[in-house]
């Protein structure tokens, strides 16, 4: 069994390499063709990880319970050690580690099921469908104001639409007061900044803020998700502990807006850069759900999953992941795997799943499949439909290749999206 050598001197693909940040899909294609798994270094990981880029292998990593999210569940490995290393690598103040590392995304087995059950009811297809009119109303309000935000006819869609829409939706759902929402926007930006120097301070502010909200909800319950979670915690602390409650709120609000904003941004930019596809969608608006699906595949904002750890030796595509080794699923690699998608680099909003597969993995796969996928898709559909309807002559204000991006490994995010209205 051979270990494939990456291009760098260390033998590993460095995900912070500017060439890879500039052209992640090209880089993932090279990894995908080289071997089922390649070595990679990513910020925040304690050691080099295995990067898995082929569609079937990605589904194996995410669907096989021999891979765990919490290193403590690797038998006989210095799990505490891995945890310590992760805390150091990510610059997390140790006293706040439980808020970062003990959330739903890091839980396995019964713990994971327990946490997911507490919130999944709020995100079912039916509950999400009930929110649709409100999402549309928020979108229309923001678009009413968009021309006023333009200078010389050019407005930044990220600032005035793509961010405010999902942050308003998730904050209303969770129960974050309006006056606190701008802070969440800032915290999100700081946490995802390329230099995580301020990580500890931001975390302290966020945790303090959530604890304060919990006290307020206890005194004055509302009909939001936070009130429900506080109630579960107070009635039955075994089902939802102190730190778990805070972490759940933190996860939902951050995961609920940071990603969706970039689906709206990336999706709008992709359509405007493909006039044929845009014209087709304008002509046949009923294609919208399929278009959002294809945009998730083609330019989904999340390129990598959380790290998984092998709880025992596992074979992936004929190579062996040894017990305790870390694996990261490259969703963006799987989503352009020519083994599954014809002409994978082409954006085609009429693309149909081939019936054998459940299609793209932009929302992950398996037990940790995105809890908010239905909500995110709906927000994407409502946002793009309203935007295209309200602005029939919408155009990019700069060539697609010049759109400023946030150079973050594992993500595809625009820093600004200047549009001519
Ligand atoms: C999990 C992507 C929107 C909440 C995930 C995962 C991915 C993902 C890839 C799995 C990560 C892994 O397995 O390591 C996205 C994208 C979104 C989006 C691309 C937008 C376009 C949302 C929204 C919410 C949300 C709106 C709102 C609640 C969550 C939660 C998890 C999750 C709570 C963890 C689920 C678990 O561990 O069981 N998301 N997400 N996401 N997402 Fe999303």
UniProtKB/TrEMBL annotation:
It comes from the Bacteria. The keyword S-adenosyl-L-methionine does not apply. Belongs to the cytochrome P450 family. GO terms for molecular function: heme binding; iron ion binding; monooxygenase activity; oxidoreductase activity, acting on paired donors, with incorporation or reduction of molecular oxygen. CDD domains: CYP107-like. The keyword Iron applies. Pfam families: p450. It comes from Planomonospora parontospora. Keywords: Heme, Iron, Metal-binding, Monooxygenase, Oxidoreductase. This is Cytochrome P450.
């Amino acid at each position: 069994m051979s270990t494939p050598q990456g291009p760098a001197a260390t033998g590993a693909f460095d995900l912070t390499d500017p060439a890879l940040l500039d052209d992640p899909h090209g880089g993932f294609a090279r990894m995908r063709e080289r071997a089922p798994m390649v070595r990679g270094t990513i910020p925040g990981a304690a050691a080099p990880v295995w990067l898995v880029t082929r569609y079937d292998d990605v589904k194996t990593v995410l669907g096989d319970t021999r891979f765990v999210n919490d290193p403590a569940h690797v038998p006989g490995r210095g799990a505490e050690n891995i945890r310590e290393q992760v805390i150091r690598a990510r610059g997390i103040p140790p006293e706040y580690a439980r808020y970062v590392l003990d959330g739903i995304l890091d839980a396995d087995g019964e713990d994971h099921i327990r946490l997911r059950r507490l919130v999944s009811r709020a995100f079912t297809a039916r509950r999400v469908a009930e929110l649709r009119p409100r999402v549309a109303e928020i979108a229309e309000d923001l678009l009413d104001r968009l021309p006023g935000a333009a200078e010389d006819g050019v407005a930044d869609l990220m600032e005035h639409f793509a961010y405010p829409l999902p942050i308003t939706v998730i904050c209303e759902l969770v129960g974050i007061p309006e006056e606190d929402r701008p802070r969440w926007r800032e915290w999100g930006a700081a946490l995802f900044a390329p230099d995580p120097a301020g990580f500890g301070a931001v975390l302290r502010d966020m945790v303090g803020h959530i604890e304060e909200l919990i006290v307020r909800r206890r005194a004055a319950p509302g009909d939001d998700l936070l009130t429900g979670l506080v109630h579960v915690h107070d009635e039955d602390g075994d089902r939802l502990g102190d730190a778990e409650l805070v972490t759940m709120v933190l996860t939902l609000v951050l995961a609920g807006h940071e990603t969706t904003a970039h689906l709206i941004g990336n999706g709008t930019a992709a359509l405007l850069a493909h006039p044929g596809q845009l014209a087709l969608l304008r002509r046949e608006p009923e294609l919208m759900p399929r278009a959002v699906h294809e945009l998730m595949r083609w330019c989904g904002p999340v390129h990598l999953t959380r790290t998984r750890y092998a709880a025992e030796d596992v074979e992936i595509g004929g190579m062996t992941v040894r017990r305790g080794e870390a694996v990261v699923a490259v969703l963006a690699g799987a989503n352009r795997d020519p083994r599954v998608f014809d002409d994978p680099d082409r954006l085609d909003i009429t693309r149909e799943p081939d019936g054998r597969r459940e299609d793209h993995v932009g929302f992950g796969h398996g037990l940790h499949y995105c809890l908010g996928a239905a909500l995110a898709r709906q927000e994407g559909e409502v946002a793009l439909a309203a935007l295209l309807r309200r602005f029939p002559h919408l155009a990019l204000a700069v060539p697609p290749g010049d759109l400023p991006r946030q150079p973050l490994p594992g993500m595809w995010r625009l820093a600004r999206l200047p549009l001519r209205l």
